[in-house]
Amino acid sequence: MPKGYVIAHATVTDADKWGQYVAKSKIALDKYGGTPIVRGGQCEIVEGNGTQRNVVIEFASYDDAIAYAKSTEYAEARALRQGAGSIDITVVEGV
């Protein structure tokens, strides 16, 4: 069974509020077995618009990644992120 990935590209405008979101989202991350494999860090945009903050979270399956992204626990974390920046999130199936 292929793994599932949550891929996010974010722009943070309020680091304190964003930090609260990250801390709260760990509850859902732990529940659904997500493992961050990219979280911020050094990057260079080599083509297109890109963003400076990129996140990739690996899950055992696509279904687990979808369950995380649509969970009540993650929704509670997402509410804390309001007004702290913008984010694009995609759930993808691995190969």
Summarize the structure.
By secondary structure, the protein is an alpha+beta fold. It contains three helices and four strands.
Task: Return the structural class.
Answer: alpha+beta
Helix content: 25-40%
CATH class: Alpha Beta
Low-confidence stretches: none
CATH architecture, by name, is 2-Layer Sandwich
**DSSP strand (E) fraction?**
25-35%
Query: Can you give the mean pLDDT?
Result: 96
Alpha-carbon distance between the two ends: 9 Å
The dominant shape is globular
Give a verbal description of the structure:
The chain is of the alpha+beta class and about 100 residues long. The chain has a single domain (about 5-95), classed as Alpha-Beta Plaits, CATH 3.30.70.100. It is about 35% helix and about 30% strand. It is built from 3 helices and 4 strands; from the N terminus they run βαββααβ. The protein has a 4-stranded antiparallel sheet with strand order 2-3-1-4, covered by helices on one side. α1 runs antiparallel to α3. The longest helix is centred in the N-terminal third of the chain and has 17 residues, at about 15-30. The radius of gyration is 13 Å and the shape is globular.
